[in-house]
Amino acid sequence: MENFVVSARKYRPDRFDTVVGQEHVVQTLKNAIKNRHLAHAFLFCGPRGVGKTTSARLLAKTINCTNLSADFEACNECDSCRAFNANASFNIYELDAASNNSVDDIRGLVDQVRYAPQGAQYKIYIIDEVHMLSASAFNAFLKTLEEPPPYAKFILATTEKHKILPTILSRCQVFDFHRIKIDDAVKQLRKICESENIQAEEEALHVIGKKSDGAMRDALSIFDRIVSFSGNKITYADVISNLNMLDYDYYFKATNLLLSGNLAGSLLLFDEILNNGFEAQHFLQGFSEHIRNLMVCKHPDTLKLLEVAPNVQAKFLQQSQTCSSTWLLNSLNLLNQTDFNYKLSKNQRLHVELALMKLCNLQRAIQISTHQPMVDEKKKIDVSSSATAPTSIPSEPKPTLPPLSVEPPVSISSLSNSSGIGSGKSAIERLKEQVAKNKEQNQQDSINQVQVVEERGENKDFSEADFQRIWTTYIQNLDSGGKSRIAVFLKDSPIKFITPLKVEIELKSTLENETMDEERMDLIPFLRRQLQNYDLEIVFTVNKDRIVHLSKISKPDQLKRMVEKNPQLGDFVQGLGLEIDY
Predict the structure, then answer these.
(1) Burial 295-321 (b: 16+ CB within 10 A, else e)
(2) Angle at which helices 52-63 and 23-35 pack, to 10 degrees?
(3) Domain count, the chain
(4) Domain assignment of residue 427, yes or no
(5) Tens digit of each residue's pLDDT (9 = 90 or more) over 79-88
(6) How many Å apart are CA 53 and CA 48, to the nearest integer?
């Protein structure tokens, strides 16, 4: 039985011209060979499977070749090239730093450097995964790396450049390898298909290239797996089945159903996806990418960001015309939040279904907020007949969704301008003051925004005496209703009329102000109804000058103040014969 060689090895580049997707590195190395400007140490950095080790081996073979071609490629015919291709070269050493990372290993390498090459111009050392070397090994390597013999060349390769010591980086010529583009991966796969007499759909090769995530070696491994599964004819259906990927059509159907407000069809489609063995989060992530692709199609300049096969691109362009940018942006935001909270949810299916329910109502909410005419049922987006037919359910009137109010973030410039820099306060104190101001403003805004819907007649004028009478009645109601603590400090709070319709209630502390956060929602409607004037505005303020620190008052005076506010406390003290402990 003939031994099978995987495509990643069988089609490994043997010339610089066949390296995929790294033209910037290849051109620089060929120019260095041409001009005899070879550095003594190279560092190849980049993701896995993009050609770092392959480029290092090609560089080592090329600089020792005795019969370079006109474009400065290795001839593959001289003794040095044949020895290299047969893995029998005595002048090129490959070291795996993951398993040879000790000081002794590096010392052995340094000892070998002392000996000149045999029958070649250079002695080349390729150290793969160099970031795995220990700190001591790096330090033992520094001197040799900085001042090697003229015949020694070092080529280091790593996937984690940030783990390399700066002293090593400064001694090397650094090359950053890029991720392989999907189009480049597809071109390489197509060449292999032609060489192996394999028929492959363009869409299938695009899926393989996308699944490889920028690594050509991964793309070739997936390709071998698909060939073993489907034989010499690779189809899109076989690829998504073998890679456990959702078909594009599911996302197109889901978008049409959501745009048309078909909640039943959306839930049934999601149920079909789950029954096919896919995770709900898999659907979430794929659908988010689908919405992103639709957003990309909205502008001709961003169309190049859509990395799909041409026939699928046409579908995206067609569907993007039926979606508004507002709907796409809100949908993408909602899906992103749903995906973010997916792991925290105890009922993950319901979590996703709730998101679908919101998306179904999103189009109508946008139409209401922008005063657009409602879409006629007969003009709704036509859903493909291949989608699961939803069970007919009685339609219910959809609620009108009010536009969402988003609180603006705290501006850094406003903090710096309003916090009084140079006043001696710390940055934290200034920040606390600004946050407190913003909180008070937001509270007031929320009061102004939340209005009680009630039958109201014509506003009537009222006097300050009328207000005081209703104010006293409200405090008595609080006292009898079990809210005596609120009644006590409201009774002591001065009332000031800013305008005939704007009343300021002065509180003594921020604690009292926080207590009134919930109470004011009952207080303001009560005063407006009793005074029969719905333009009345109540403002609560905190007068810092009235804040009294109890630590500065004697204990008898403290007790006296407490008894004045709560006479029952005095009876309690006398009844038990309590005395103040000085």
Answers:
(1) bbbeeeeeeeebebbeebbebbeebbe
(2) 20
(3) 4
(4) no
(5) 888 888 888 8
(6) 10
Residues 26 and 88 in one domain: yes
Which residue is associated with the tokens 């004819």? 233
Question: Rounded distance, CA 184 to CA 21, Å?
Answer: 6
Q: Which of 116-125, 188-197, 550-559 is the most confident on average?
A: 188-197
Place of tokens 């997936």: 222
The residues pairing with 284 across neighbouring beta strands, listed in sequence order, are: none
Residue 322 lies in a domain: yes
The whole domain housing 116 covers 7-176
Is pLDDT of 387 > 50?
no
Tokens of 234: 């690779």
Q: Give the tens place of pLDDT for each residue, 243-274.
A: 888 888 999 999 999 988 899 999 999 999 99
Determine the Cα–Cα distance for residues 27 and 308; give it in Å rounded to an integer.
29
Round to whole Å and give the CA distance between 278 and 272: 9
pLDDT at 411 over 50: no
What value, to the nearest 5°, has the Cα angle with vertex 269 and ends 201 and 367? 105
Mean pLDDT, rounded, for 284-296:
91
Contact criterion met (CB below 8 Å) for 44 and 155: yes
Residue 547 is predicted with a pLDDT of 52
> DSSP for 115-162?
SPPSSSS-EEEEEESGGGS-HHHHHHHHHHHHS--TTEEEEEEES-GG
**What b/e readout covers 163-189, taking b as 16+ CB neighbours within 10 angstroms?**
ebeeebeebbbebebbbbebebbbebb
- Quick check: is 429 in a domain? no
* 144, 110 Cβ separation under 8 angstroms: yes
Closest CA to 364 of 312, 328, 395, 399: 399
User: Same domain, yes or no, for 63 and 192?
Assistant: no
284 and 364 both lie in a single domain = yes
Checking 505-510 for CB contacts under 8 A at 24+ apart, the result is: 505/538, 505/539, 505/540, 505/541, 506/541, 506/542, 506/543, 506/546, 507/540, 507/541, 507/542, 507/543, 508/542, 508/543, 508/546, 508/547, 508/548, 509/542, 509/547, 510/436, 510/542
Q: In what order do the strands lie in the sheet with 537-542?
A: 495-499, 502-507, 537-542
Specify whether 46 is located in the same domain as 67.
yes
Average pLDDT over residues 162-169: 88
Looking at the structure, tell me whether residues 31 and 138 fall in a common domain: yes
**Claim to verify: residue 288 and residue 155 sit in the same structural domain:** no
CB-neighbour burial class of residue 394 (10 A; exposed 0-12, middle 13-18, buried 19+): exposed
Mean pLDDT of 28-50: 91
22 shares its domain with 61: yes
Tokens matching residue 468 = 């005081």
Q: Are residues 17 and 78 in the same domain?
A: yes
SS3 at position 70: coil
In a domain, 580, yes or no: no
